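Internal QA ticket QA-208
Title: Verify multi-chain structure generation after dependency bump
Assignee: T.L.

Test input:
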Amino acid sequence: MKFTCLSKGGGFHFSPCHMLNVSGFRILLDCPLDLSSLALFSPVPVAHQAHESLDTDSVIRKKQKIEKTLDANDLVHAEPWYKTVKNLHLWDASFIDVVLISSPMGMLGLPFLTRTRDFSAKIYVTEASARIGQLLMEDLVSMHMELRQFYGPEDSCFPQWMRWEELEVLPSELRKIALGKDCEELGAWMPLYSAVDVKDCMRKVQTLKYAEEACYNGTLIVKAFSSGLEIGTCNWTINGPKKNIAYISSSIFVSMHAMDFDFLGLRGNDLIIYSDFSSLDKNMENDDTYFDPVTSSSGRDDVSNLEEMAASLLKDDESAEEIEKLVFICACALDSVRVGGSVLVPIDRLGVVLCLLEQMSLLLESSSLKVPIYIISSVAEELLAFTNIIPEWVCKQRQEKLFSGEPLFAHVKLIKERKIHVFPAVHSPELLTNWQEPCVVFCPNWSLRLGPVVHLLRHWCSDPNSLLVLESGVDADIALLPFKPMAMKVLQCSFLSGLSLQKVQPLLKILQPKLVLFPKDLSCKIQISEANMIFLFSENETLRIPSSKESTDIDIATDLASKFRWKTFKQETITRLEGELFMDHGKHRLLSGFQPANSKQQRPLVHWGSPDVKVLLTELSKMGISGTIKQVTDDAKSEDDAKSENAAAIIDIHDPEKALIDVRETDHIKISIQIIHGREFILYT
Amino acid sequence: MAIDSLVLGAGQEVGKSCVVVSINGKRIMFDCGMHMGYTDSRRYPDFSLISNTGDFDNALTCVVVTHFHLDHIGALPYFTEVCGYKGPIYMTYPTKALAPLMLEDYRKNMDRRGEDEQFTSDHITECMKKVIPVDLKQTVQVDKDLQIRAYYAGHVIGAAMFYAKVGDAAMVYTGDYNMTPDRHLGAAQIDRLQLDLVITESTYATTIRDSRYGREREFLKAVHTCIAAGGKVLIPTFALGRAQELCILLEDYWERMNLKVPIYFSAGLTIQANMYYKMLINWTSQKIKETYATRNAFDFKNVRNFDRSLINAPGPCVLFATPGMIVGGFSLEVFMQWAPSEMNLVTLPGYCVAGTIGHKLMSGKPTKIDLDKDTQIDVRCQIHQLSFSPHTDAKGIMDLVKFLSPKHAILVHGEKPKMATLKERIQSELGIPCYCPANNETVTVPSTHYVKADASETFIRSCLNPNFKFSTYSSVDKSYLDSKYSKAASGLQVSDERVAEGILVVEKGKKAKVIHQDELLLMLGDKKHEVQFAYCFPMHTERLQKTRTEELPSADTLLCDLDKCTLINQLSMKLSNELSDANILDLGEQLQVESFRVSICSKNSCPHRLSHSVHNDSESVFLCCHWSLRDEKLAWKIISIMKSSSPHTT
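Actual output:
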């Protein structure tokens, strides 16, 4: 097995991406887009003329390499391109056999792949991820189309900003976005796919339920298990005849919206690929908390009971902390609304938005403020309707709502009561007639470069009473550049987006893998017990993982096995196999099959063991053949080196005819018996 | 190894479906239904047959319920709360959501009829808490060995067929299913599985149904005629399933025909049920499913809540009322009011239990119905019987059994004589042994079992590569013997025996191992030995003698290479004449046929030479032959050819 990490991603919206070689199949794990690099581009309504007049001045400044503080004019004024996984284009897409998608975010780059010629891989996605992912892609395309209207159609396939001269004069922060650290990422930029590409891509996707078995080529069985991060996100198990692999993407034990992390489903796999990089982003802020004694205490040996350990993993305050965060955001929002400011929430995490909607409307109701909540997105209506028909994909508490006949999420009721309004775009007529300020607006996109957020942010950026709620992980300095000067308050909030490091150790203890593939970047922050063999991986480095199983399991049909003719030896009983070997559902099966009648005669006999000369002689004499042993100590006639004197012997046969049996051990430990004129001869060994 | 199926209910009858299956030490109860036709102990399956001590937790691994109809789930609260089963129960999400409504409704009706209560409302709640919901196709690991999986069955929302697998043995229990899609549900769907046993329903074991379309049109026509004439339509139906199906049908028709006549739902139950249906829209047919974003198909536009005061309100209307077979409740109340007018219409479900008013209306056209001693209803209204059913017909059952091709089949949930006919068909047409046991009977069928072994890498790899062997055969086909074509019967046979190179090794206390034959000796720690034959014999050649005399005496014992080659060459020609199908390799100084090698012996005293016979003849050439055991026959044949040929060459 071979494993290559193509990208460790970056945060919730940019999943890691890996390439895996198992049983001769090439498997791509996730295919995301790096939307954070959209920050390079300027959203349209920036004062373009100012840029023109200052041009000569700024060019001189740039050429002299004088670093000044960034301003909106430094951004690239062009139709944005999109950055894919930088190392993926180094691989031939037509050689990929299977693509496993673990989250809606992880499939945003998929149309780039599916539209390449000769792409023939089977793509597996959970049903919910596929639907949400499709809506996200459609939204992206529609937002991009809107932006494109300002720039007009691109006339050449190679945009101006990608010229080296242009890239060179970019400020260093932006150059890093465009080129990457080592100036190698320019090839990752792509113009966005079209709506047709998205449709084509979805046609090639095979959707699965959680824990549904999908069999690829009769050999690999892949199964998705809930990861708890978001509705429909999953971890994968890949079972081949010789490998059992579990792939752990960013996971959350207890979720407020999605089905919990189903870690018990991942048990029984020899190899675990740990690909939750979420703690990497968090650790920048508070590094010290991760070496606390919790690690050692929860990893205690006396917690031998598996169920107890599993329960201790699930019982945690993380979700409580998340609720606190939501309450805090709502409280801040309420403060802004009270003083007449509006609240803009460009958060694109479905689960968080759904929970925020519930919290926000609760709070607004209790505060008796008549403030409308707007959701503006081309796919919002469908997305909201969708979240209410998927009880199989949500957390336990929400499933209980189904069983008691209530809607899964409160927004259904709130929309009916006209407390939440859903519009497809900022310019939709219903919005214009309903619009009232102050208000709370949820809209895409978190990059602040696309979608309704651009218009609303420009509208409110100079209002000191208004509030912008951002996800952490967004580089606020660059993101807000086009909207400066900002009088608006900004609240940046981090949400739980993966496993915390102190839970890795107990998790691995429950899963009991033989091998663990672990990110090198995280390895310094955590001690993993020696029980597991660990391979550390880093970006663009191929790891060769030795096979853990020596042999392959094979099932032999009983009716066939009963027909075998057995031969017994000192310890073993052996038989030659018959039938036909089949590969079905990752299992080798030997079933009785067609057999030509004369097959047994053609089969070569295999003889082994060293014949005892005396025994041979007595056996011969029983048959009426007599002879004498002529011991030859040195095998002079043999051209081989005389290494074999001890076993060499010649038997002279005189009756019924003259013959000679030459028993000797050759250099290749081969015993040959040479008989002259020994016509009717049966040999016993 | 065997699978035992104990049929506790629905054996040669319809009602109280319950089959307990034991596979490889696991015991699964499929369905836990009640019989609507009885009010005594016969209404429940005889649970004492599972365990006479009442320790059901140890006797059963799990309970699986296929759908929410009472004849499949009715006894569940009794079994868990009264009998005390505490183990896991599996059903699909919609079944878990809708089952409490069904059970509660039944319990209330029991109450109303004054029967002694078998379980309470709390019992239902407690029972449902133990239920683990499953999604379609999700592989559920019940315990280490038992896997179950649900497949879409059509029938009602959330209905599922269940697949169960323990070790190598696997089976499917279908529950009720429908092989053709209806207004709101899709057709049953299942993977091609390797099965030892299929237990299938057989409600319509002999019926073949025509298209739904005609029957739907008939129904709509009847309704339309009635309301056009100002009549009222009573549709007694149960709240779940049929009500939604007919409602979708009517909604569609109303829209098309632009009708404004109100459609009413009698109780909150149906409205509440619609709420569930909206959330569970993913479990309906593809066409309905796609409406979720724009307008959920279960958001009925023309449907309103009914009020008692509207019973005698003027003007036409359509009313859905429960229960379905007019056994009591609101549908009976309305029926009493509407039945005397010939303008009105009552539609009846396809199947009514004997003893109900529905059954009386269906059998003939009575003008008067005695409700009890004092009440008599004048029946003058029109009666329409709905003839579409959510069950599969005989063709569907045959199709499913044929598709799954199990090793054995068991029929349940049907009428005895019809089942016997279907059983015959399955056995004769599909060649699958089939059984239809009566209640409390056990059917035992053998199950698949595989011998487990470890296969070595070499063996697997050698099996992946083609390993063609070509051999000629001449078949003695008697029909061709006298004709001139007899020769054509012989030909080239191609065999690809990869598995035959494998050897199975069993050692005490160890897992059986499959290895490639080349690995055998290594594994046994023994050495291979070869049996080789050698034979050195003289050959007289005149020509050789001649050349010999011309040569120098010193070179007397040596044959020049050229001579050797010509001799070998001659032999080769000779052999190829005699042995037409052998592959003769002329390697210059030696000849090779398979493992047989012959060369000119240059040694003075070859150990393989029978020294006494030709000792005196120094002029002869010795031919030294070697071959291995497997080519013995060939070798002697060649030697005899060579021996016989030598006089001719001289």
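Spot checks passed. Residues 454-524 of chain B form one domain.
Status: verified.
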